[in-house]
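Weekly modeling sync, notes
Attendees: S.R. (lead), two postdocs, one rotation student

Agenda item 3: backlog of single-chain predictions. S.R. asked that every request posted to the team notebook include the full sequence so nobody has to chase files. The rotation student volunteered to paste the first one in as an example of the format we agreed on. Action items at the bottom.

Example entry:
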Amino acid sequence: MSKEDIGITVSKEADFSEWYTQVVLKAKLADYAPVKGLIVLRPDGYSIWESLRNTFDEKFFKNGIRNGFLPILIPESLLGKEQKHFAGFNPEVFWVTHSGENEIGDRLALRPTSETLAYTMYSKWIQSWRDLPLKINFWNTALRAEIKATKPFLRTSEFLWQEGHTVHAIKEEAEKEVMKILEIYKNTVQDELAIPVVTGKKSEKEKFVGAVYTTTMESIMPDGKALQMGTSHFLGQNFSIPFEVKFSDKDNVEQFAWQTSWGVSWRLIGAMIMVHGDDKGLVLPPKVAPIQVVIVPIYKSDDAKNAIFPKLNEIRQQLESKKIRVHVDDRNELTPGYKFNDWELKGIPLRIEIGPKDIEKQQIVLAKRYNREKISIGFNEIEKISTILDEIQKDMLEIAKVKAKENTINISEYSEFKSKIGKGGFFNAHWCGKTECEEKIKEETGADIRVIPFGSENTNGKCIYCNEQSKETPIFARGY
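Predicted structure, as returned to the notebook:
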């Protein structure tokens, strides 16, 4: 087996794009599918998605949200009901025109997003104020033909995501729902994936097509590009009117409902890879790692193996009793060194090494993946491993916060903005609020407004572009 088959052959700093692709493929998270623009999710990659899904489901349920299922085909006539919304997705839609050799008539879209289909059903289900609020989440795939070059988890024609759609009798209640979901997203991404995010609103230009306004969470990647991590939209009555999502209020007066929609996708996995990975490969936060602890026995003879394995199995059982996901690497045909590199490539948070000398000393050696630190603990200290995993999780977030802060710049001069934007980063800059300035900045620098952070209203500065009085201080960046 050649070196190229085994490990990562480029550094993260020298060729970020190639490094990322190698990590995805060689850590066995995903692979390219036979159809351009599509990827296949392998068990480790899917396990991370399942972990996130379970966490979200638990939090959604506590917020009164239940899961449903929607079909993937949407009639063209439904997509056309909300013209602005449809126009935004039309260039990206895959169309089904035939069933076998026969034309089907009204074309069917492979779901780019589910608002139109969901709200057609909601209009049937909702009659009275007693039917509200209606809160349903859908774990779906979405398909959007926008891909020039496939980037696993980041740019694919089909992707896994969840999309929630809620309906409310009261406007203020719907707006509160938007913020509740954004907070759930923020806490989950920071607590589970150890990735810091900035939350706020999108500009009018960048908001979701059909929304009154869009809230978002954004993160900065190590290559200096921004990544949208999730969005939560207040739709107002923009969809309830054309789709007749209405109800009779307590006075038996018919009203149009107030709606929200929100979603995150598997690009969260892509963000995790980019933020935490290193030149050895993947680095997994313990909370989402398919395997949290791998045990590698070290022996050269059957006698040594027989001396090790009773204690090794005892340790494994102790860890499993604490709900720690543990794996014993007992592959006889491979050397310990090969195994170490293999598990480092796959990003397993903690490795236990145990050999005959360790048995004599009544200890094990622990190797932490995120900082490559090695420590020894006694057989009577195995319970400490739970705490060590918690500490790794917290440390990874703190390290990511420091790096994100280093990649965030306050800037007031447009000439400086233009000269530095090529190196990437988050740029805090005053803005007058005019779309014309936003568009000119995008045209001249490739940077757009990623997020207008909550509380960033600011009239004490001058717009970075036109030098008129500012209204707020958004974050500009080039993005994925």
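Discussion: group reviewed the output briefly. The mean pLDDT is 95.
Action items: rotation student to repeat for the remaining queue; S.R. to check formatting next week.
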